[in-house]
Design goal:
Layout lengths: L9 E3 L7 H14 L3 E3 L5 H7 L6 E3 L11 H14 L2
Parallel strand pairs: 1-2, 2-3
């Protein structure tokens, strides 16, 4: 029996200095390798959503990363905003 491990992998780039060209590369790699998702900084969610339009790769992001210093009410608000953007 063969298992497609790529379908379980989130391709991630979450450093503070992430650039749009790095997000482009992560999205392209994920699409070519059939990864399940890309996990990127929130500000790039709309860009990644456009880049991955038509592919099966999902867009994932984080709230309060890396320290988690976001109050629950703010986290919910940001989560809803990222959802609207396509994350």
């Amino acid at each position: 029996m063969s298992i497609n491990l790529a379908s379980y992998i989130d391709h991630t780039i979450l450093k503070q200095t992430t650039t749009i060209s790095e997000v482009d590369k992560v999205c392209l790699d994920a699409s070519l390798e059939n990864f399940v998702a890309v996990c990127i900084p929130p500000k790039y969610v709309p860009d990644a959503k456009k880049l991955l339009d038509g592919s099966k790769v999902k867009v994932c992001t984080v709230v309060g990363f890396p320290l988690g210093l976001v109050l629950p009410k703010q986290r919910l608000k940001k989560s809803r905003q990222h959802w609207k953007w396509g994350g």
